[in-house]
Recover the amino acids of this structure.
């Protein structure tokens, strides 16, 4: 008889606990309300900076690739041709 009461209390506690998914969504919404979102101008400026740095790095790495590939090709031709 005592086990039945304990089991029923345990079942009651489990039903009162919020669903993990709904708890996650509720907490996520709460955190998103705390976020200080950037203005349109800040977003545009930061996007331009990211694009500029990305393009600059692409050009830099492309030039390095070109230089090293031509250097290795010249080295191979020198070794094979000798």
């Amino acid at each position: 008889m005592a086990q039945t009461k304990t089991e029923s209390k345990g079942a009651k506690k489990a039903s009162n606990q919020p669903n993990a998914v709904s708890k996650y969504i509720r907490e996520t919404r709460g955190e998103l309300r705390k976020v200080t979102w950037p203005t349109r101008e800040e977003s545009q400026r930061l996007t331009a900076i990211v694009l500029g740095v990305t393009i600059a790095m692409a050009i830099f790495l492309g030039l390095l690739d070109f230089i090293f590939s031509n250097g290795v090709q010249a080295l191979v031709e020198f070794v094979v041709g000798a």
